[in-house]
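Quick one: structure for this chain?
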Amino acid sequence: MLPEQKDLMYKHFPQLVEKCDLEHILHELIEKDELSKEILNEISLEDNLRHNNRCILFKLINLEQFNAFPGFVEALKQNGFNELVSSLENNYKRITKDNQLHPLDVNIDVKLSTQFYDTNEYNRTGFYTTRSKNRGHVLLVNNIKFPAGNEERHGAETDQENLRTLFEKMGLTVFSFTNLSAYEMYFKTQEFSKNVPETKPDMAIVIFMSHGLMYQNETMIISSDNKMLTEDSFRTIFNNENCALFRGKPKIFIYHICRTVLENPMRETMTDANRSDTQRTYSDMLICHPSVKGYSAYRNSIKGSWYIQLLCKVFMEHAHDMDVESLLKKVDEELEIVSSMPWQLDEGHSTQQTSTFQNIAFKKCYIHPGLYEEDGKVKHFSQT
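Got it. Here's what it folds into:
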């Protein structure tokens, strides 16, 4: 369920427990193939209506792989609970219209650099030189629709457009793809890592936005055809042995996926079996996540995700004179503010999110939006 749908279910929890026979509703959803019959084995039902209603509600609300809300509301309507259905539908329309669960409305307007910061004057530690006209390549993969098994990621289109606009205005080249299968994701990434232009890019930014989860302490990315790929399999593509194009260059990975824990995945898992023990196989990498292990990443069904919206906001306002790690720290500072706002609609239910990033031998990196050097002269990218 979407966060706003979960909030509404919690808000109407007492009425649903007292007025409905949710076991009957559950069987109807199973008969319509909107839920798997295996769900019955996961719910402890007794000879007590209120107890059963509570157990069923908690199960439906916390389903990660299915959006049970539309079918649930329709089943309530078919069983004559018109007043309750009207309240759920009206409140959902109001929340969606007013965007009460999201404070952001980002209009991408990048503040451009007026000077270069990749010099010894500004850095006491190692740094990358990022001032060529081929500033960088961005791979952007956004899985929104999933034929079966996962809910549609409403609002993700906004994230994709904002990121594309942000990096293009900064002077980077964006390769954007939507709804890729597991094999398409893997081979598009391979192609991106080996597609050598006339001059090497200064940096690589790789962004995957999709459903995701943790399994056996590994982060899994779910493809549009509902298969799982390990996060490490993509990192391997860009290590120093496999990727000559970006060897010694800054590589920034942004995985906008949830990392809730699943013990027994039912999907096919793809992984890269070639593991190298060579020293310094991995370097110059920054791995970014919108949440810590075991937690979700919040996304509004209209304006997009908290993390991506804040990342766009911070980067467009501060990348002109701040390095990437400082930008990511500022993103989390703003994320803490957003998470602390009063989204709580019912006692005991709130929204919190903490972003993380991992530095793998990654030096100081400035994007220098809008600015490049050619034949010893400072020039500006066209903003069109």
